[in-house]
Amino acid sequence: MQEAVRIWLLGGFRLSIGARAIEAERWRLRKAANLVKLLALAPRHRLHREQVTDTLWPDFDAKSASNNLHRTLYAARDALTSATLNAASPELRLRGDLLELCPDGQLWVDVEVFEEAAANARRARDAAAYRAAVDLYAGELLPEDRYEEWAEYRREGLRRTYYSLLVEMARLLEEHEDYEPAIEALEMVVADDPANQDAHAGLMRLYGLVGRRNESLEREMDGHPTPRTGLISRVGNNLRGLVRPRSLKSKRVSIPPNPEPRSAVHHGPHAPDGLRHHRRPIAAVRRLGGSTEVTLS
User: Fold this and answer.
1) Which of 20, 124, 178, 219 yields a CA-CA distance of 20 to 30 A from 98?
2) Whether 36 contacts 167, CB under 8 Å
3) Which domains, from first to last, does the chain contain?
4) Minimal CA–CA distance to 5: which of 62, 94, 79, 63?
5) How many other C-beta atoms lie within 10 A of the C-beta of residue 164?
6) 0.70 exceeded by the pTM?
7) Contact, 78 vs 36, CB < 8 A?
8) Strand 20-21 to strand 14-17: parallel, antiparallel, or no bridges (unpaired)?
9) How far apart are CA 27 and CA 224, in angstroms?
10) Which of 204, 205, 232, 234 is nearest to 219 (CA)?
11) For residues 293 and 254, is the Cβ–Cβ distance under 8 A?
């Protein structure tokens, strides 16, 4: 009977077979460890050999990439064998063009356990289930491979799941008027993700509910975004780009050289209401060339 293989990817890569852990120095080739990580993250823990070579050796021709794969596969099996009681390692198998990790044995991967716990918590809507899921997130995915493109997408997705669990748990705790643990959960989010609007909005609301209004005001004055203030800010910025401020200086208006005769302008009691009530004083009139320039105050 094969022993269970356990793989940790959150917070750093570790692997054990049964009760025996594989030491870091047993992975002679970095690519050997990466091969196991790729398969641990893959659906059903299997990948076509071309998927592996395209990921690990994207700049190599097909023959060179294939040679590297066989060399890496040998090194990975050697590392796995160091923790098994058998002479051979059946945990890593190349069958045709398909690479498989533990096809016939028990395989436990912390990422899968975390994702399953997150789904269970959302179905149950229970604070204890949320706490159990959150506790399974031991850190970001494979921090030692932070600049590996193949890990970026899953790393960001898992991080967002973790933040979302904390925000959802805080809302659930708030509904049950359990405010302090809710505040603690949201403070964990903003410590790692300062731009998280949902967490900031929840904190401001919770600070008000527990009487910590000064902290709520300080958070708002410090410019921490909320969904509402973020929208107002974006609208304001857009309007500022469209509207130009009008000058406060007096206007200069040019009047044609032959203005309407005075007799045609009604200033007396029989003048129309629009003229009688909207006359504007003329501050200065001076003759310039063939036109009259009027400065209105």
Assistant:
1) 20
2) no
3) 5-109 (1.10.10.10), 252-296 (no CATH)
4) 79
5) 15
6) yes
7) no
8) antiparallel
9) 45
10) 204
11) yes
| pLDDT tens across the length of the chain (297 residues) | 678 999 999 999 999 998 999 999 999 999 999 999 999 999 999 999 999 999 999 999 999 999 999 999 999 999 998 877 665 566 899 999 999 999 988 999 999 999 999 999 999 999 999 999 999 999 999 999 999 999 999 999 999 999 999 999 999 999 999 999 999 999 999 999 999 999 999 999 999 999 887 665 565 555 554 443 443 333 334 434 444 444 434 444 444 555 444 444 444 445 444 434 444 444 443 443 444 444 444
DSSP secondary structure of 205-260: HHHHHTT-HHHHHHHHHTT---HHHHHHHHHHHHHHHH-PPPP-SPPEEEE-SSPP
Q: Provide the residue type at 123 as one letter.
A: R
Give the separation between CA 158 and CA 125, rounded to whole angstroms.
20
The residues, ordered by sequence, that sit 6+ positions from 190 with a Cβ below 8 Å of its Cβ are 196, 199, 200, 203, 224
In terms of residues, how long is the chain? Answer: 297
